[in-house]
Design brief:
The chain is mostly helical. The chain has a single domain (about 5-150), classed as Up-down Bundle (Ferritin), CATH 1.20.1260.100. It is built from six helices and no strands. α1 runs parallel beside α4, α3 crosses α6 (about 125-150) and α4 (about 70-95) runs antiparallel to α5. The model has no long low-confidence stretch (mean pLDDT about 95). Pfam families: TspO_MBR. Keywords: Membrane, Transmembrane, Transmembrane helix.
Length: about 150
């Protein structure tokens, strides 16, 4: 399989799954009724940010698959995807704020471990995942705040 095809497949798969999960777990009346911190961004920002991040995640996943397929780097990439895709159904679908908090913290840890492993092996993937780490850290703080306020 050609490298451009691998990149395209990873990006399409990650963005597609992210969109599918988002469409099936739309924040509704329950979410609107929750108390939220003052730093909660407007709802419209989440879609564009996550779409851009999913493109980056897919790109990095393809790099990991092509160059480090049987390494901790690839295993950590898969782990962070599992935690990432589990969060919305838990938070919005099942309305389990505490369980979603545990999952997003696991996502944060898996991202930190991915970055630690990636730093010396693939500097581009490391740099590309820094905004993702920052966004998930912010989302973790937001999840924690909503948990504490409700």
């Amino acid at each position: 399989m050609s490298k451009p095809l691998v990149y395209a497949l990873f990006i399409i798969l990650v963005v597609g799954c992210g969109l599918l999960i988002g469409i099936n777990n739309i924040p509704g009346e329950w979410y609107q009724s929750l108390a939220k911190p003052a730093f909660n961004p407007p709802n419209w920002i989440f879609g564009p940010v996550w779409t851009l991040l999913y493109v980056i995640i897919g790109f990095v996943g393809a790099r990991s698959f092509l160059h480090h397929r049987h390494s901790p780097m690839m295993r950590l990439w898969v782990a962070q995807m599992i935690f990432n895709f589990a969060w919305s159904p838990l938070f919005f679908g099942l309305q389990e704020i505490a369980l979603a908090l545990i999952v997003i913290l696991a996502l944060l840890v898996s991202l930190a471990l991915f970055l630690a492993v990636t730093y010396g092996r693939d500097r581009l993937s490391f740099l590309l995942f820094l905004p993702y780490l920052a966004w998930v850290a912010f989302a973790s703080l937001l999840n924690l705040s909503i948990f504490l306020m409700n």
